[in-house]
Write a structure and sequence with these properties.
alpha/beta; TIM Barrel; eight-stranded parallel barrel; three-stranded mixed sheet; 17 helices; 13 strands; 13% strand; globular; binds 4-nitrophenyl beta-D-glucopyranoside
Length: 513
Amino acid sequence: MSRRQEVLLAVVAALSVLLGAPAGAAPTTAGSGNAVNQFPEGFLFGASSAAYQIEGGWNADGKGESIWDRLLHTFPNLTTDGRNGDVAADSYHKYKEDVEALASIGANFYRFSISWPRILPTGDTNVINQAGIDYYNNLINALLEKGIQPLVTIYHWDLPFELQKLGGWTNPRIAEYYVQYAKVLFENFGDRVKLWITINEPDMFTKGYATWGQQAPSVNASGIGDYQAGHTVLLAHAGAWHLYDEHFRPTQKGKIGITLNIDWSEPATDSADDAEAAERSLQFTGGLFAHPIFSSEGDYPSVVRLRVDANSKAEGRGVSRLPSFTTSEVEYIRGTSDFFGLNHYTSWYVADGVEGTVPSKTYDSGTITTPMTEYPLTYSAWLRVIPSGIRKIVNWVSKTYPGHPILITENGCSDDGSTLDDQQRIEYYTGYLSEVVKAINVDGVDVIGYSAWSIIDNLEWMAGYTNHFGVFRVDYDDPDRPRTAKASASVLKKIYESNSVPLEYFTPDSSST
Ligand code: PNW
């Protein structure tokens, strides 16, 4: 048996143990007798990236233009440093060095995304770009050679520009194009890829249909376009899940889910109104996408439905700004995820009250969000180090949507690029992972894996290359884009290889965090 076949067999065996438990079954760690700093056997450790943020090769070998290519070529000053993803970390040519970096930290898996326009330059299947297929085949094979399993994000924000001409995600028909694209990926890579994420962070990228300058495609339709785009996303996600479930799962035997980003909302005071507001803010960010997929009744959360309907009416509108699903669509979407992919970075104070333009999702939520200034800030203005938040959010997810294993698909923080001795990142990872392992062993939450964002420094969207999220530095002034390990890489390696947070790094007491 080849090394690759052995790896695949091991991966499938581990997955069936981790993900095969029926809904509502006892958490995998129950009665395991694990020490509190020890992850369950078979826990998956990895690192993440996304195509536009690392690949470059923006028009290489037949790749089509994406909405990010178009946006940053048209408005170069949108990013903090005026730079774009044309070359990025040049992973299109240097992917083998990324694989080396992953192997050096002991990663079990690599979460990367596939660029839709690199595979389908027109967005549709009339043109399939063989060079794009070859690139991802090479990457997947290089990973498997090292015993690292690929976890593929099908969509991480880089829509083919040709589909934006039709309105992008605000056009419900984009769901059909998306499913055809997913089919090409299952057909070409599904023999070796056993873990799929349909769509990354709809709450974040649908901001591209709300306010100019935040996200591609940068359409100004706050409180309308973002809900409409999210509606299409849910149908697209469900379409890909059903396609996989019916036509590919029987032979390929993999798992497929969605990734949602949810910050923790801490009530600003101990008043009942603020507690309710904090829950409401979780519903407007996480619940908007999670409830239709993971709840037992499906559809949008009632608090979101009621508030957007009422505000739309008060604004004198004839239709609600939040679209409706038919009864059969509710059923079509419900239950379409094999795990709960969670991206989590930070926490906020949330109070009852009104802020945001009319109309907007923020205004609809009836919440006021403020930073938790007593916690340390990272190099990103929105990102504070608040380890206790990750334990609270995984508990919230498992209580609100019971029976779904949680896969943490992103977690990490940024530095300013000035040093390889990234002590704050070490504190961040060890603090957050301490809280994750306690959530598993003390609270009984079913977390099955963890992925660090990111393996290498990359294009941080509108922040350009000024926010460095990598455990490997990339020198963006050197045309060779050399990668160099930061201090945090060796700490992650210790955690990943010992399947625990070693006691020297472990925070036993949450109250201190
Ligand atoms: C995620 N926030 O985005 C994305 O999936 C990555 O592509 C990105 O590089 C990473 O997190 C770091 O930012 C987010 O403002 C961007 O709360 C911003 C926020 C959250 C997630």
